[in-house]
Each structure stands twice: as structure tokens, then as C-alpha cells.
Fold this sequence. Notes:
This protein has 8 helices and 15 strands. By secondary structure, it is of the alpha+beta class. The strands form 3 sheets. An 8-stranded mixed sheet has the order 4-3-5-6-7-8-9-10, sandwiched between helices. It has a 5-stranded mixed sheet with strand order 12-11-13-15-14, sandwiched between helices. A two-stranded antiparallel sheet has the order 1-2. The structure holds 2,5-anhydro-1,6-di-O-phosphono-D-glucitol and manganese (II) ion (2 copies).
Amino acid sequence: MTQRITLKDYLNQNAALLQEQGKDADALNTLMLGIADACVDIADLVRHGELAGVLGAAGQENVQGEEQKKLDIIANDVFIEKTQDTGQLAGIASEEMDHHYPIPDGVEKGKYLITVDPLDGSSNIDVNGATGTIFSVLPHMSEDAPTDADFLQSGEQQVLAGYCLFSSATMLVITFGNGVAGFTLDIEQGEFLLSHENMTVPKTTKEFSINAAYAAHWHAPVKRYIDECVQGEQGPRDANFNMRWAGSMVGDVHRILCRGGVFLYPSDERMQKAGKAGKLRLMYEANPMAWLMEQAGGLAHTGAQSILSVDPTELHQRVPVMMGSADEVERLIDYHTSAS
Ligand code: AHG
Ligand code: MN
Ligand code: MN
């Protein structure tokens, strides 16, 4: 087997660059290792599936009215425990908690906030499909204990973001704002090893990703874009397209970071009527994935503005999402602009 560098070695090598950017490399690296520890533990539970007794519904709903799976709650607890122990956090906000979790008295506190989707794609859990953990780290600007409002910073303020994909292999994909690096978990060693240096999204693609079951509700620009792709060589794109839908954003984004593509979870007429701006959540799904995409040379947009520029007003705010290969996202932006 090739000798690969460990996550720890990578972080040490990256430290000088972070310091040059005025970031506290020691603190961020300690936090990153805590996040990686949490991911190893969650991956272990996911891998054992039914044998670990973690499958099935928890019998309760989260703040967004979605049914929680047992593993949603367990992953949330594991993530909190492992990351708060790093001493680098002031608070944790999660898909699975109405309000942020303040680091309790007696636990060392730090100067960062973290937002997390502890288990993305949780409907895949019971069918052994791809899932993941998505995280985004923001600075905590004050000396005081954080409030929910302190988390409401745009994606441009992120200092570290990434995801861990639980699939045929467990992979950690991260950015500190200087490119995207991917690590594969060596289960025997319990270590993440650098396997995907400098991940880049090809500018062009012929692959799209959308839940086509909602086609009847799509707004005109999305309808136009997908219709043209589906017409293939006979249509205005003069090319045949392929379609993939993993059912977990982590799975779809990972594929795009590996080989290109475009991922859409747009707003639609049905959502609009229900007063929702989209399905995916800005703070712990759209923002971290948008930053990874842009760091890998892709684009991420709502149709009206870049995702990273959205000023959040709520912890669990939803946004329309279009991200991936630059040429296709630019085309989608164009269709949205000309329709408005
Ligand atoms: P979560 O399991 O964290 O609630 O997220 C699920 C999200 C996202 O991962 C995925 O892309 C999308 O929901 C799938 O939605 P549909 O079931 O509407 O296809
Ligand atoms: Mn999710
Ligand atoms: Mn989730």
C-alpha cells in the first residue's frame, strides 16, 4: 500500500498557510481533529446498522416537523460530545435542536461556533444508502456566551467546513479556504488518510441531479433547464445528459466534487405556497457545501444570489440550491435572470 499522509500530518503542514491568513491554526486544527473523531464514531454506528440497534424512527419530530430517525439523535449526541471536548467551541447549532447548544459550565470554551447536520440523507439509513455529516465553523465574535443570533453569519464568514460521507468507504472532505482535500478512513488504523488532494469540479458536465418527482411544481427556469437536458441531442443543448439522485446531499455533492455535475434542490410552487424558500437548510447544508464547491472551482447559487452571500435571518432557514460545474450553474443563473 502507498504511504499516505494522515489527517493530522496534513493539518500540521497546512498550519503555516492558515497563520499567514491570520487564522488560529492550532485552534482550528484541534477542532478539526475533534470533528474527525466524531465522524469516526458515527461511521462506526452507521456501518453496524441493524446490529448496533440504531435503525428506525425515534418516534419524535425535529423543529422543522420532520420525523427523526434514531440515528439522527444519536449522531447529534456523538457530535456534540466529541467536538465540545476540543475546548475550541462556544456553541453548537444543529438540524436536530430547536436552538443552539451552549457549551456547559465546567467545559473549556473556545472562540468558534459550529453548525451541523449530524446525519444528512437520514431516509437512506434504513435502506443502507449513502449518508453523511455536514459541518460549518464560524467565528464567535464576542466574549459573551453565544445566542442563536450569533450564528446568523453569511457563508462568507466560514473558517472551516466539510462533510464526512458514509458510503462504500468513509470519506472526510474539508476546506479551510485554501482548496479542498479528501481523506479516506482506514478502518484498521482508525485514521483518515489523504486520498484526494486538491479536489476540483470540472467546468463542464453532462450530468444533473434533481428529484424529478416534483417536476409538476417547478418554476419556469428550472423546468426550462431540465427540459433542455432531457431532450438530449435532439434539443438545444445538442448533447445527451445523464441523471443521478442519491437522496442525500452529501452523496450528490461528493459525486460532483469527484467528477462534475450539477445539483439542484430548487424552490417550487408547492413550497412557495407553504411559505418555504426551499428544502435544504442554509446554515448546515447549503453554506458548507457551497464553500466546498467554490473552493473546488464550482459555483453555488440560489437563482437570485450566490449562496455564500445570503444573510441569514433564522437558524433553520431554508434556501433554494443550485451548485456544481460552473458552466451549468451559470446557465441556470442566466435562465433565472432572464425569467425575472
Ligand atoms: P436530512 O436527512 O438531513 O433531512 O436531509 C435530506 C435532504 C438532502 O440530503 C437530500 O438531498 C434531500 O433531503 C432529499 O430530499 P427528497 O426526499 O425530497 O428527494
Ligand atoms: Mn440534510
Ligand atoms: Mn440530517
